Amino acid sequence: MEKSDFDNPDTTIPPTFRVHGIQLKAGSQRLFYKGIQSFREKKPIPRRTTIQLAKTKYAVCEINGSTPVAGQIWKSVQDRMLSKAIRGFLWKSLHEGYKIGEYWDRITNLERRGRCHLCGETETMEHILLECDESLASQTIWGLAECLWRKRETYWPEIRFGTILGCNLINFTDNKNRKQRGKSRLFTILMSESAHLIWKLRCERAIKLEGDTSKFHTREEIQNRWIFAMNSRLKMDMLLTDRARYGKKAIPQKTVLQTWSGVLLDEDNLPDNWIWQSGVLVGITSQRPPGRNR
Questions:
Q1: What are phi and psi of 122, to 5 degrees?
Q2: Could you tell me which of 200, 189, 160 has the C-alpha nearest to residue 61?
Q3: Which of 5, 64, 164, 199 has its CA 20 to 30 A from that of 93?
Q4: Cα–Cα distance for residue pair 183/142, rounded to 1 Å
């Protein structure tokens, strides 16, 4: 062996010994999970999911003027601005994952469960939330949502099923094309909370009340449930501005003020910054049930 071989040794690594990727100690569970997923063969998107995504794209484009891609839609329903229950509700609705309608047609002697308790039509999530003309819950709740919205805004868009599924992608702008984050955030809250409540009331009618029409929710009960849901969300927003407790995860006070200002009860008597004010409520009051001395 010549001296030059010692001075300039061959340092190339044979392909069989070349290590790929990162060290275990340098990664995280999330990173490794994404890596494993990238090697798996991607399954084709189910036809029903494709239809729901198309409805969402159309409805969002109708308001925003631009069409979101599928990845944006999936990311929007996983946003922690939405409660865990609502995130699951929107995700399953996009997948048509609920056991309603045609699901029961495949099960002998249980076909009746696939029919709407109110009108007898085949149930779909779109039918439950928007299409059933006999649904007092749907009529009342969307009326309340529009009423609260019009306390501050003038334009109330046509609510489609895709509007609900893509509510967290809706972006309103002013005359100078600047994003109105508070307005968009309020719309997202109204859409998601209202739709989820309609679904919960439907489940109570079908399961808890066993389809007994004499026990169905009255208009006053529905209104009070909706107001409670809105006030609970308002209170949660106010609490989440506490930077001492939540640190970087806290919501900026400006965001909460921009979201709710203009739709509060007796707002003229509230301070400009009402975040830590007690008794702050949305601008629609509950109704007491009829009875003696009322």
A1: -65, 130
A2: 160
A3: 64
A4: 17
User: Taking the CA atoms of the chain, what radius of gyration do you get in angstroms?
Assistant: 26
Mean pLDDT of 137-162: 97
Mean pLDDT score, 50-67: 97
pLDDT at 224: 97
**Angle ∠(177,181,183) on CA atoms, nearest 5:** 95
Angstrom CA distances, 6 to 1, 9, 11, 12, stand at: 8, 6, 11, 15
Residue appearing with tokens 């208009």: 219
Average pLDDT rounded to a whole number, residues 21-46: 81
User: How does residue 293 score in pLDDT terms, banded at 50, 70 and 90?
Assistant: very low
pTM of the full predicted structure? 0.86
> Residue 256 in 3-state DSSP?
helix
| pLDDT tens digits for range 191-209 | 999 999 999 999 999 999 8
Q: Which long-range contacts (CB under 8 A, 24 or more apart) does 115-121 make?
A: 117/205, 117/206, 117/211, 117/213, 118/205
Task: Give dist(CA 198, CA 181) in Å, integer.
Answer: 26
Give pLDDT, residue 292. 44
Q: Are 180 and 173 in contact (CB under 8 A)?
A: yes
* Cα–Cα distance for residue pair 83/65, rounded to 1 Å: 27
Residue 276 one-letter amino acid:
W
Give the Cβ contact number of residue 119 at 10 Å. 13
Closest among 54, 266, 254 to 165, alpha carbons compared: 54
